[in-house]
């Protein structure tokens, strides 16, 4: 697909924060916890009771002095090579940024093509009820949300390089503000393809919404991990593992496409198994 | 179908469950003809492995006939197969490296979170062995759904009886891999802690691989008698000072390789095992590593430590000093069954390996709860239990471990020997 740059003209939300999608921001003058931290510690200790106070006293006696802590905080830091999303901070501006990598022993082009056909996404993404591309470059996803809700996300494909990358950003009329990309690159040593996803999103209802979502395993960081593992299973093993031993207990991942079900019902010969003796 | 079901710590019973079906394209359904109780089933029975839920069907050593296949299975209905306890996709990085028990794709995604938190990485799927390893319904049942049936099951020729082939599912390759990971070299002394089924097979494997001397340590006389019967020297730890004996039996050098075939429920009160036991009982520690501590202390400098024994959590007082200062090599892992089972089947066919000498009891699946109880609490007499789903309740036969040992006078548990005389102590 030709690169569509029209999205560049669209008003851009106040994100991403510096480098959240790229390298660590440690080299940049990022906000740093100030001296308030110790006061917060004292406040927490008061609520946690005597035990914490004893610990704190021990820390005050044995731990670094105030001047040591300050010197450490002020010491220049090396910009490390870890992905920005693994930084020890939960938020990047208003956005939560999450991502996950998986190595799949299939060629890059094949995995790209599978992903680029958005109708395939519900096969391995547990919370995607439906996905499609009603017009070229515009995708719509229906996402299962906590408490039986669904959320509709409309996003524009902002970067699409065959065999390399698909990037998207939600349109202004979308129910969730989100932006993300999936990248494909050759794994070293002929081990297949490294598939890396990075997703930034504004959690509905902020930190509380994020916590609730996490509780229901609907949070993108949990989902990204599980979804990529399912993709790996589907592309490497041809099916998604399950421990259920009855078809009526299987979920959509096993039911796969209608074709798979048709195959199974053809081969399944209920009479082959003698009736249970009990 | 009928299947042995977990109902909580020390409580198992045979219940009715719906018959399994083909769910995924590579599945097959096996009608079980023989299955066995494994020493590691006792860890589940004792409630020391996390993630076993009430209602789970146990059992991971089983064989039987194929009764139904999915469209992508390469098996044929009617074939007689042994099923490895490890479920492996055959296509991922680990499977292609012959590390079948590390398969990335066989543990259901929802089940991987727990072991990823506990171990840093998820485990492969295993039959009937806790939800950490997938929560797959196990083989102590009339029927089993076998995923990836084009990769796992091995077809057994009809002239080999069930009992000879059954242990290809786990304990035979586990013992073989234990010896393989211990690396047997000419002139070596290999020492095995635990004369249970895996320890006995490890000792036999080390012999077959050419070890000069194999020594097996235990405190159950009948189990030691089995080890002696297949050519190993034995040490009864209740009579003998183990570390001193091993030094004296290896010319003051120490054994070249040691094998811990005991695992997380080590007996005795030596080697800091008492605090481990208390912690395990009150639930603040998982693994008792008394045998492993002793093995690491015993092995010679630059020696090899092989651990087929099952561990599940964390332990204290792991001898890191001895491990590092003596320059030891530590090799562990669930068994890569599919790496070894073809070669082992050939050795069984050629008569190079005896796979039935340790069977003490063959009984009906319906009586499995009694099998668990006896295998756990009467370890001297009950050395290996085979279960038959087709047998009617109450039918039970004795295995070679009983019939042959009972015929050999002196090896069966007699009265405790009197204290050694001066002459006996002076005797080399």
Automatic annotation (TrEMBL), chain A:
* Record-linked Pfam families: Polyketide_cyc2
Q: Sorted alphabetically, which InterPro entries does this protein's record hold?
A: ORF3 (IPR047137), Polyketide_cyclase/dehydratase (IPR019587), START-like_dom_sf (IPR023393)
- Has UniProt tagged this entry with the keyword Membrane? yes
- Source species, domain of life: Bacteria
What spans are recorded as compositionally biased (Basic and acidic residues)?
1-12, 71-83
Give start-end positions of Polar residues composition bias.
252-267
Report the SUPFAM superfamilies cross-referenced here.
Answer: Bet v1-like
Q: What is this protein called?
A: SRPBCC family protein
- Native source species: Rubellimicrobium aerolatum
TrEMBL record, chain B:
Under Enzyme Commission nomenclature, its number is: 1.1.1.-
Q: Which GO terms describe its molecular function?
A: oxidoreductase activity
Q: Which UniProt keywords apply?
A: Metal-binding, Oxidoreductase, Zinc
Name the domain of life.
Answer: Bacteria
User: Does the keyword field hold Oxidoreductase?
Assistant: yes
Essential cofactor(s): Zn(2+)
Q: What InterPro entries does its record include?
A: ADH-like_C (IPR013149), ADH-like_N (IPR013154), ADH_Zn_CS (IPR002328), GroES-like_sf (IPR011032), NAD(P)-bd_dom_sf (IPR036291)
Gene3D superfamilies hit by this protein: Medium-chain alcohol dehydrogenases, catalytic domain (3.90.180.10), NAD(P)-binding Rossmann-like Domain (3.40.50.720)
Q: Where is the composition biased (Basic and acidic residues)?
A: 393-405
Q: What class of enzyme is it?
A: oxidoreductase
Domain Alcohol dehydrogenase-like C-terminal: from-to ranges: 197-264
- Annotated region (Disordered), positions in chain: 393-428
Give start and end of each Alcohol dehydrogenase-like N-terminal domain.
25-153
Per the similarity annotation, which family is this? Belongs to the zinc-containing alcohol dehydrogenase family.
This protein is called: Zinc-dependent alcohol dehydrogenase
In its UniProt entry, the species of origin is given as Rubellimicrobium aerolatum
């Amino acid at each position: 697909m030709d690169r569509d740059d029209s999205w560049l003209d669209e008003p851009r939300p106040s994100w991403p924060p510096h480098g959240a999608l790229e390298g660590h921001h440690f080299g940049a003058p990022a906000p740093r916890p100030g001296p308030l931290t110790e006061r917060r510690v004292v406040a927490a200790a008061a609520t946690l009771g005597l035990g914490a106070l004893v610990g704190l006293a021990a820390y005050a006696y044995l731990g670094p002095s105030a001047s040591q802590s300050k010197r450490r905080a002020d010491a220049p830091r090396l910009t490390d090579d870890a992905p920005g999303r693994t930084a020890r901070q939960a938020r990047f501006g208003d956005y939560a940024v999450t991502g996950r990598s998986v190595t799949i022993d299939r060629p890059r082009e094949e995995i790209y093509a599978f992903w680029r056909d958005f109708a395939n996404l519900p096969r391995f993404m547990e919370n995607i009820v439906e996905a499609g591309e009603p017009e070229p470059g515009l995708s719509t996803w229906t996402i299962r949300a906590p408490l039986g809700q669904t959320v509709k996300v409309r996003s524009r494909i902002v970067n699409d390089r065959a065999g390399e990358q698909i990037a998207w950003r939600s349109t202004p009329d979308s129910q969730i503000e989100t932006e993300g990309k999936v990248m494909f690159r050759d794994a070293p040593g002929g081990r297949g393809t490294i598939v890396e996803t990075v997703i930034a999103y504004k959690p509905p209802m902020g930190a509380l919404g994020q916590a609730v979502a996490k509780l229901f395993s609907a949070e993108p960081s949990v989902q990204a991990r599980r979804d990529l593992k399912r993709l790996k299973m589907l592309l490497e093993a041809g099916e998604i593992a399950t421990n259920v031993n009855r078809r009526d207990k299987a979920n959509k991942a096993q039911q796969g496409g209608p074709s798979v079900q048709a195959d199974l019902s053809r081969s399944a010969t209920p009479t082959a198994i003698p009736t249970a003796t009990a | 179908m009928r299947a042995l079901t977990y109902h909580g710590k020390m409580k198992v019973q045979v219940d009715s469950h719906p018959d399994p079906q083909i769910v995924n394209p590579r599945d097959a359904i096996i009608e079980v003809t023989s299955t066995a109780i494994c020493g590691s089933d006792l860890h589940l029975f004792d409630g020391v492995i996390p993630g076993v839920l009430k209602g789970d069907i146990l059992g991971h050593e089983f064989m039987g006939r194929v009764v139904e296949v999915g469209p992508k299975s390469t098996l044929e209905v009617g074939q007689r197969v042994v099923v490895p306890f490890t479920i492996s996709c055959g296509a991922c990085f680990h499977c292609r490296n012959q590390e079948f028990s590390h398969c990335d794709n066989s543990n259901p995604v929802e089940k991987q979170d727990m072991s990823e938190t506990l171990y840093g990485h998820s485990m492969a799927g295993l039959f009937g062995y806790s939800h950490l390893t997938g929560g797959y319904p196990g083989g102590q049942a009339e029927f089993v759904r076998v995923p990836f049936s084009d990769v796992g099951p091995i077809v057994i020729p009809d002239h080999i009886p069930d009992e000879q082939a059954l242990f290809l599912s786990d304990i035979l390759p586990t013992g073989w891999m234990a010896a393989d990971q211990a690396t047997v070299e000419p002139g070596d002394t290999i020492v095995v802690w635990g004369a249970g089924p895996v320890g006995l097979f490890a000792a036999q494997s080390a012999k077959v691989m050419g070890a000069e001397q194999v020594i097996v340590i235990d405190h159950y006389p009948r189990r030691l008698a089995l080890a002696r019967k297949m050519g190993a020297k034995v040490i009864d730890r209740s009579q003998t000072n183990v570390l001193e004996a091993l030094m004296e039996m290896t010319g003051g050098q120490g054994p070249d390789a040691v094998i811990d075939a005991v695992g997380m429920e080590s007996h005795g009160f030596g080697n800091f095992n008492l605090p481990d036991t208390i912690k395990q009982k009150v639930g603040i520690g998982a693994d008792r590593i008394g045998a492993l501590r002793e093995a690491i202390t015993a092995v010679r400098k630059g020696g090899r430590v092989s651990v087929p024994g099952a561990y599940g959590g964390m332990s204290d007082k792991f001898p890191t000093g001895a491990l590092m200062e003596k320059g030891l090599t530590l090799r562990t892992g669930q068994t890569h069954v599919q790496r070894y089972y073809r070669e082992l089947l050939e050795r069984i066919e050629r008569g190079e390996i005896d796979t039935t000498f340790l069977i003490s009891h063959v009984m009906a699946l319906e009586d499995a709860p009694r099998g668990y109880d006896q295998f756990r609490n009467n370890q001297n007499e009950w050395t290996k239990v085979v279960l038959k789903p087709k047998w009617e309740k109450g039918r039970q036969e004795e295995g070679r471990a009983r019939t042959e040992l009972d015929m050999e006078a002196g090896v069966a548990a007699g009265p405790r020997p009197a204290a050694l005389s001066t002459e006996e102590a002076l005797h080399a």
